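We were asked to recover a plausible sequence for a given structure. The inputs and outputs are reproduced exactly as logged, with field labels preserved.

PROBLEM: sequence recovery
POSITIONS: 104
GIVEN STRUCTURE:
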């Protein structure tokens, strides 16, 4: 499965959503997650993310986010269409240490 990680927080560009063939993205207030049971590992979302937030679960950068994607993808609503990015998305795009800002 692919995994959404920290870089998405406060950006939520949603370009990923638009390309997913199985619509397996779920949206929180300032972050998106992928449902690991629905993702078919096609990889098309990964290069679409302007914040480079998406990695395969085999990548070390995905490791701390695997459980978070699994958990919230059963709680948050499904998202299938691109919407506007968050208002300060460009400003937050390359900022480190956003994990604590995840809205649950
Ligand atoms: Fe969707 Fe493919 Fe990305 Fe999985 S890897 S979330 S199936 S676009
Ligand atoms: Fe987030 Fe990137 Fe998608 S910022 S909403 S993972 S395009």
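RECOVERED SEQUENCE:
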């Amino acid at each position: 499965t692919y995994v959404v990680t920290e870089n998405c927080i406060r950006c939520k560009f949603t370009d990923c959503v638009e390309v997913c063939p199985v619509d397996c993205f779920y949206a929180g207030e300032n972050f998106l997650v992928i449902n690991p049971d629905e993702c078919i590992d096609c990889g098309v979302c990964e290069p679409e993310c302007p914040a480079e937030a998406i990695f395969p679960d085999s990548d070390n950068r995905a490791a701390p986010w695997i459980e978070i994607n699994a958990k919230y993808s059963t709680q948050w609503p499904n998202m299938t269409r691109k919407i506007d990015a968050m208002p300060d998305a460009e400003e937050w795009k390359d900022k480190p240490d956003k994990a604590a800002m995840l809205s649950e």
